[in-house]
Design a protein that fits this description.
about 800 residues; alpha+beta; four-stranded parallel β-sheet; four-stranded antiparallel β-sheet; 25 helices; about 35% helix; globular; RNA-binding
RNA sequence: GCCCUGGUGGUGGAAUCGGUAGACACGUCGGACUUAAAAUCCGAUGAGGCUAAUAACUUCGUGCCAGUUCAAGUCUGGCCCAGGGCACCA
């Protein structure tokens, strides 16, 4: 029997061409089968695929193929998150056209994806930078606008000098720009926001529904939303009749310990609160605060600074007259922008009071209390008049209630989440469909006038302003309300707006009448399995959840959460460290295709680590997988003429040897099916491929003792089990065996529970928990029989002589433990 | 500081319910085939002790210290370390 060699490059090219013609994974919206929506996070077309993409899309593809084989109508689409700064920067640097740059990249990467053998319905592809998509992004903006969820306001916003644009809070990482890593400053600008804070409570509460999400992602979102409960307390200003300063606190129980008050440098009433003699120093302090970068200002290590305003408040609980200070440790955009200071029980206040010699009053005591040290634990009240002796919970409630009853307070729940700033002062994005009319003011465009097309007559060489502003034609338009002259909003939308709804568009991507169809989207969504990187734990995933809830409230769809199950895959490393262009340790998928084939890449990227963990790419590992593929192929080519596509045999009449071999097949189906279904443990799935393959090689060693029907069954089973991973090789072998259909259209094999079980077991015999013997025994023996068997063991007799048997534990079909003294 | 995730051989990792720790690989070593090499195939491989050596036997071993149990990688309590997230959020 001659063995043929396998040449993956040629074989993969052959099937690539066939699949290219057929689009074999075209998915109907109408089907009797149950639906399954498998989704990968859509790529940004930066130029070439990287290994992170390969890992992400291979995982999703294997899931999609597995579910398809199990009889689901599987939606597995792909698209391009194609607006964004890199295209614009390429335009600025090489004088390229951003659209051409982007579409060229898409064409290249699309080919790379197809070469990877992904089972995608390419007819549903979406490209967010094309008018047939961004028309609907603009349309959705208008729906949010009508619903009051999109609004414009002037506020201090995050500004990245290098990118020359504003950023959302979620895009500022440690005070730096998420994209270019340069320091972010604050600027006061009039900008568009989405009112995500309206959904703070629901976004937090519904995390509980997301059982298919990892705790890490849920906790990150929970922390980001940052719910706290406390009270607003209002303080009268002694010197200014009628003026009150409200503060937010989570510790109303410490109200008797207030000795001063702090307002943020940007606090709205600060000028009124400053006395004439303090004016100069306060002005100077505020000017300095403005100059500080966010990083400097928010550093917890920084020594506290501040100056007194000269005015005072009266603590309504104690009657104490307390000075008001300005200090930048109070933040203008959290709570009320003012803080009540209780130095004895808050570390920041404590540091500040120490530095400026402000008085401290102890009002809480409890375990670990130490005189003269800041005590922040929740203890028992003292020095608090009628509230003395109460614990934290009681005091919090009683003191707030007292403030409510006396008209100077209220219960308050506070969130850290801020509204989503979506305007960008850049060209390559979806224009905001709003115009400004001298007569009518801010006017939303009519839906029939969409899309607002990006102008092409722009000059990318300008600095200091958005290139879009250089268009001579874009700015001026007519007011849809009065027909008079009007100017457009010159900003574009954050690309995260585009990516907050792309998975909805896939359901009906060619629809030019609607953004998506309500019936169709209700059928497909929520996404059954979403796969992507952890870096979107807050940004994209939170925004998409918000979009879903907002569009539900706009009556466009009828579900509450977009992604039922989420798999966040780990990073791809090279020899233990992060792949990066600067380190020069990247691996180019094209090289892997060329040298080993896409099947090897797919097999390897799934083989060594579970999907959620980081994966270490090594050259030795790739070669190991390549060899395995060749080894599998050899097996089939060796028996090509003997393999029966419809093997038939009676399992009851098989020889012991054949029966044991058949069991390997059933065990493999069981284990692989379970490992995919439970947690997508592809690394153990692949281990089982190898074990099964080894078992087949073991079986065929004795060439004169082969039952070819059983062997055919085993080989066909292995082929199907391996087909979601090694898609080209499986198809090639199947067709070489003479099959007329694609292996990818055949059903997933079923295992027989009885055939997966052995009639024999290995009984573990322990004495005092230490293994003394292993005995082959038939399965299903009674406890007494097992105990007798164990006690008959020579090794057990040896180990128990001169000792008393205290008791014997028998676990059926597994183990006997004899306890002796 | 708070929260999440993880810690198992030289390496990646495996181990439904507490029941044979180290599956499957990579690497290393040895052997077969070959003029030779590659490829392929076969075997060994947690650390130590005993032994002339092998087999047999035996001790230790899943970050650390306790505990529960006939039995702990797995359960409980307390720590340590690494990675990630949040953080002058009152």
């Amino acid at each position: 029997m001659l063995e043929k060699e396998y040449y993956p490059q040629q074989i993969e090219k052959k099937w690539f061409d066939i699949w290219e013609k057929q689009n074999p994974y075209k998915t109907p919206n109408d089907s009797d089968k149950p639906k399954f929506y498998a989704l990968s996070m859509l790529p940004y077309p930066s130029g070439k695929l990287h290994m992170g993409h390969v890992r992400n899309y291979t995982i999703t593809d294997v899931i999609a193929r597995f579910k398809r084989a199990q009889g689901y109508n599987v939606l597995h689409p792909m698209g391009w998150d194609s607006f964004g700064l890199p295209a614009e920067n390429a335009a600025i640097q090489h004088n390229a056209n951003p659209q051409k740059w982007t579409l060229d990249n898409i064409a290249y990467m699309k080919k790379q994806l197809k070469m990877l053998g992904l089972s995608i319905d390419w007819d549903r592809e979406v490209t967010t930078c094309l008018p047939d998509y961004y028309k609907w992004t603009q349309w959705l903006f208008l729906q949010l606008y009508k619903k009051g969820l999109a609004y414009k306001k002037t506020a201090p916003v995050n500004w990245c000098e290098k990118c020359a644009t504003v950023l959302a809070n979620e895009q500022v990482i440690d005070g730096k720009c998420w994209r270019c890593d340069s320091e972010v400053t604050k600027k006061n600008l009039s900008q568009w926001f989405f009112k995500i804070t309206q959904y703070s409570e629901e976004l937090l509460e519904d995390l509980k529904l997301l059982e298919g999400w990892g705790d890490n992602v849920k906790t990150m979102q929970q922390n980001w939303i940052g719910k706290s409960s406390g009270a607003i307390l209002k303080f009268k200003v002694k010197e200014l009749d009628g003026l009150e300063i409200p503060v937010y606190t989570t510790r109303p129980d410490t109200a008797f310990g207030i000795t001063y008050l702090v307002v943020a440098p940007e606090y709205k009433d600060i000028e009124k609160l400053t006395t004439a003699e303090n004016k100069a120093s306060v002005e100077e302090y505020r000017a300095n605060a403005k100059k500080l970068s966010e990083i400097e200002r928010l550093s917890t290590e920084r020594i506290k600074t501040g100056v007194p305003l000269g005015t005072h408040i009266i603590n309504p609980f104690t009657g104490r007259v307390c000075p008001i200070w300005v200090a930048d440790y109070a933040l203008v955009d959290y709570g009320t922008g003012a803080v009540m200071a209780v130095p004895y029980h808050d570390e920041r206040d404590f540091d500040f009071a120490k530095k400026f010699n402000l008085p401290m009053v102890q009002v809480i005591t409890g375990e670990n209390f130490a005189e003269g040290k800041c005590y922040t634990e929740k203890g028992t009240l003292i020095n608090s008049d009628k509230f003395n002796g109460l614990n934290f919970e009681q005091a919090k409630k009683a003191i707030t209630q007292y403030a409510v009853d006396n008209g100077f307070g209220e219960f308050k729940t506070q969130y850290r989440l801020r509204d989503w700033l979506i305007s960008r002062q850049r060209y390559w994005g979806a224009p905001i469909p709003i115009v400004y009319c001298p007569n009518c003011g801010e006017v939303a465009l009519d839906e029939k006038d969409l899309p607002v097309l990006l102008p092409t007559d722009v000059d990318f060489s300008v600095t200091g302003k958005s290139p879009i502003e250089t268009s001579p034609t874009f700015r001026y338009t007519t007011c849809p309300k009065c027909g008079g002259k009007a100017v457009r909003d010159m900003d574009t939308m954050d690309t995260f707006v585009c990516s907050s709804w792309y998975y909805m568009r896939y359901t009906d991507s060619k629809n030019d009448k609607e953004c998506f169809n309500r019936d169709i989207i209700n059928k497909w969504l929520p996404v059954d399995q979403y796969v992507g990187g952890i870096e979107h734990a807050i940004l994209h995933l939170l925004y998409s959840r918000f979009f879903t809830k907002a569009l539900r409230d706009c009556k466009l769809l009828d579900f509450d959460e977009p992604f039922k199950n989420l798999l966040t895959q780990g990073m791809v490393l090279k020899d233990g460290s992060k792949m990066s262009k600067s380190k020069g340790n990247t691996v180019d998928p094209d090289d892997i295709y060329k040298n080993f084939g896409a099947d090897t890449a797919r097999l390897f990227i799934l083989s060594d680590s579970p999907p959620a963990r980081d994966f270490d790419w090594t050259d030795a590992g790739v070669e190991g997988c390549y060899k395995f593929i060749l080894r599998v192929y050899r097996l089939y080519s060796k028996f090509q003429d003997k393999i029966n596509l419809n093997p038939s045999f009676d399992p009851k009449t098989l020889s012991k040897r054949d029966d044991n071999f058949l069991r390997e097949a059933h065990i493999s189906i069981k284990k692989i099916t379970n490992d995919i279904e439970a947690e997508f443990q592809f690394n153990t799935v692949i281990s089982r491929y190898r074990e099964f393959t080894n078992a087949i090689y073991e079986y065929i060693k004795d060439e004169n003792n082969i039952n070819y029907d059983v062997l055919s069954f085993a080989l066909l089973t292995l082929l199907k089990l391996i087909s979601p991973v090694c898609v080209f090789m499986a198809e090639e072998i199947y067709s070489e065996l003479g099959a007329k259909t694609s292996i990818h259209n055949t059903p997933w094999p079923k295992y027989d529970e009885n055939l997966a079980k052995s009639s024999m077991i290995t009984l573990i015999v322990q004495v005092n928990g230490k293994i003394k013997d292993k005995i082959e025994a038939s399965q299903g023996l009674s406890k007494d029989e097992l105990e007798a068997l164990a006690k008959a063991s020579a090794k057990v007799i040896e180990a128990t002589k001169d000792k008393t048997i205290v008791k014997t534990i028998v676990v059926v079909d597994k183990l006997v433990n004899i306890v002796v003294k």
